[in-house]
């Protein structure tokens, strides 16, 4: 009886340890979006109509999904993250009230796990729409279109694909995620916002 209990206990212990080990596997790609994108709202305007939204929550799900499909396991950068490389995503959204056009733009700066820069990529998308008709859904759709173009560009870079698949991970949450403290915050007032709102 003691032997059976011991085996059951051992099996349960192993079952509990396996998921933990799987989660500790370094990601192919770590993603970073500046915390300000989650706390600071961006304003889109259309004369007497305003719409405020946060870019981080709008971009993170679609970025994680599409980059995972293209490069394998993707995780958000945290204090304990390990990964083969780091990608800093910088989203931008504008609305032209005259032409009724949403402009979405996502820039990706890629770094090796030791913090060395690799390359920058950009994806842009436009969509005709109205700011007072399901604006959040339209914003998310434009970001998805921009992200699809961004990922398509990134997939053409053989060096990036090799780095994500075979790069050396940052052991013990090393240089890659430590980099983020030196990244500048997004601009509160972006001149492109005004230019694209006019043209």
Describe the protein:
With 199 residues, the chain is α/β, with parallel strands linked by helices. The chain has one domain: 3-Layer(aba) Sandwich (Rossmann fold), CATH 3.40.50. The chain is 43% helix and 27% strand. The chain is built from seven helices and seven strands; from the N terminus they run H-E-H-E-E-H-E-E-E-E-H-H-H-H. It has helices at residues 2-23, 36-39, 55-71, 135-155, 158-166, 175-178, 191-198; strands at 29-32, 42-46, 49-53, 74-76, 85-96, 101-112, 117-128. The protein has a five-stranded mixed sheet with strand order 4-1-5-6-7. The protein has a two-stranded antiparallel sheet with strand order 2-3. A hairpin with a 4-residue loop joins strand 6 (101-112) and strand 7 (117-128). Helix 3 (55-71) packs parallel to helix 4. The longest helix has 22 residues, at 2-23. It is elongated, with a radius of gyration of 21 Å. The N and C termini lie far apart (80 Å). The relative contact order is 0.18.
Give the key terms:
199 residues, alpha/beta, Rossmann fold, two-stranded antiparallel sheet, 7 helices, 43% helix, elongated, disordered N terminus
CATH class: Alpha Beta
Range of helix content: 40-55%
Query: Distance N terminus to C terminus?
Result: 80 Å
* Percentage of residues in strands: 25-35%
Mean pLDDT: 80
* Secondary structural class: alpha/beta
| Total strand segments | 7
Shape: elongated
Largest sheet: 5 strands, mixed
Q: Please name the CATH topology.
A: Rossmann fold
> In total, how many domains does the architecture comprise?
1
Uncertain residue segments: 2-23
- How many separate helices? 7
Q: What is the CA-based Rg, rounded?
A: 21 Å
Series of secondary-structure elements, N-terminal to C-terminal: HEHEEHEEEEHHHH
| Sheet with most strands: strand arrangement | 4-1-5-6-7
